[in-house]
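Quick one, tokens below. Sequence please?
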């Protein structure tokens, strides 16, 4: 019952304080209501902005400035600074908050078979268009990255 002590004490103090405190309480409740209303509008705007971004990515699949669906980025070419193919995107590691952390890149092999997988910091990839298709320029040396192994439990 300890958790009820503070609210009961506050309620009793408000009742004993009289009309001036009731007016103050009404003002505080009004301010809280306005703040909640503003927060609700911001959340709604965020949903609308997200929906618009998704619609634009779907409507403009060849233009990465509108964003892209992950399914369209899998198997994208990874290029060196001279824009020569050096690998392809095999997968992405995405944090619970939605941030892309790593790109799993297949280097070597032929047509997606063979080769080895490496995990590259997503921040080292720059999205570009290559012959009208999404691709990435990697800023670094993919060959120097350690192999990426998927844990099998």
């Amino acid at each position: 019952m300890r958790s009820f002590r503070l609210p009961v004490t506050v309620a009793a103090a408000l009742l004993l304080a009289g009309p001036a405190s009731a007016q103050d309480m009404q003002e505080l409740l009004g301010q809280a209501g306005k703040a909640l209303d503003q927060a609700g509008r911001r959340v709604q705007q965020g949903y609308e902005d997200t929906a618009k971004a998704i619609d634009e990515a779907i409507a403009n699949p060849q233009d990465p400035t509108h964003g892209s669906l992950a399914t369209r980025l899998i198997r994208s070419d990874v290029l060196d600074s001279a824009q020569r193919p050096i690998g392809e995107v095999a997968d992405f590691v995405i944090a619970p908050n939605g941030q892309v952390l790593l790109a799993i890149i297949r280097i070597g092999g032929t047509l997606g078979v063979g080769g080895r997988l490496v995990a590259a910091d997503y921040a080292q990839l720059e999205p570009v268009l290559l012959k009208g298709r999404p691709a990435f320029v990697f800023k670094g040396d993919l060959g120097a990255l350690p192999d990426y192994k998927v844990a099998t439990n």
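The chain has a mean pLDDT of 77. The chain has three helices and six strands.
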